[in-house]
Amino acid sequence: MSRNKVTVIGAGNVGATTAQRIAEAGLADVVLVDIVEGLPQGKGLDLAEAAPVVGHDARIVGTNDYADTAGSDIVVVTSGLARQPGMSRDDLLAKNAGIVRAVVEQAARHSPDAILIIVTNPLDAMCHVALQASGFPRERVLGMAGVLDSARFRTFIAQELGVSVEDTHAFVLGGHGDTMVPLSRYSTVAGVPITELLPPDRVKALEERTANGGAEVIALLKTGSAFYAPAASAFEMVESILLDRKRVLPCTVLLQGEFKTEGLFVGVPVVLGARGMERIFEIELTADEQAAFDRSVAAVRELVGKLPT
Ligand code: APR
Predict the structure, then answer these.
(1) In which band, very low, low, confident or very high, does the pLDDT at 1 lie, cut at 50, 70 and 90?
(2) DSSP SS3 for 86
(3) Residue at a domain's end among 143, 167, 187
(4) What global pTM score does this model have?
(5) Is 11 in the pocket of ligand 1 (CB under 6 A)?
(6) Which of 8, 13, 76 to mutate to test the pocket of ligand 1 (most atoms within 8 A of CB)?
(7) Which of 24, 171, 175, 258 has the most CB atoms less than 10 A away?
(8) What is the span of the domain harbouring residue 134?
(9) Are residues 220 and 82 in the same domain?
């Protein structure tokens, strides 16, 4: 039996760290792709040379040529630019849309049956670009945001209550932006909702820190954005698909009527298995939660409306 094959596009911080996690778990052979010559080859070689020490036999190579990605089971897209000084959010949107369109077209041609996991920001809009550029069905175009946002929420819950992160669960829905919706009623410690464990003002503080989680890391790093937690989150999605675990994870998927939303990529809980998004897990929202979700949806719709056609 041969190993699965995963392509990671973008050999920067998030891409290289994702490649490392996949290879070191022995989960799949990894092809690391970047537009910069030498960068993916160098990181690929370095990672391959770590294998004897770490103790895995996954093959890992870097390349600038999409022919090497042929037959991938999963393609993780992290390529893009970070926002530069003087660049507006809309400039970033247009630039990264161009990059994501180009890389997805090439990757999809070489791996027509692959499942795409999009990581490049602005995430929700980039998923739309990837869906169009690949022509894949919605089950095979997924965005990584909810796992990361929920992981941040879980970290803060565990720290606040002095409990193991392992016993925390959290759901964060909506767009991957300031309007994301941390669902505290469904966020639990050993099954007990945090709304029963913490006073409302502390719950609100944790929700706000979660929504601001990416910016908090950027403010500290100054020269880049988070990558350890994003890479771990992308890895969790890859693992659930390749091992057909059917994990229930919040992912960004194209809604077609679910959660009262039509034709838009938004974060919701889904069942992730060998076929990609196998089911959307529709949960009951209170009127307040649905209103917050609708606000988030409106923000995503506005951003998607600004995509260059
Ligand atoms: N094809 C392939 N790779 C590209 C292309 C392209 N057309 N354009 C840019 N890249 C590569 C860059 O050369 C760089 O190596 O994408 C990589 C991006 O890496 P970083 O700048 O280190 O960014 P990173 O921190 O990894 O974030 C990547 O993930 O979480 C999101 O917001 C983040 O959109 C960003 C993405």
Answers:
(1) low
(2) coil
(3) 143
(4) 0.97
(5) yes
(6) 13
(7) 175
(8) 5-143
(9) no
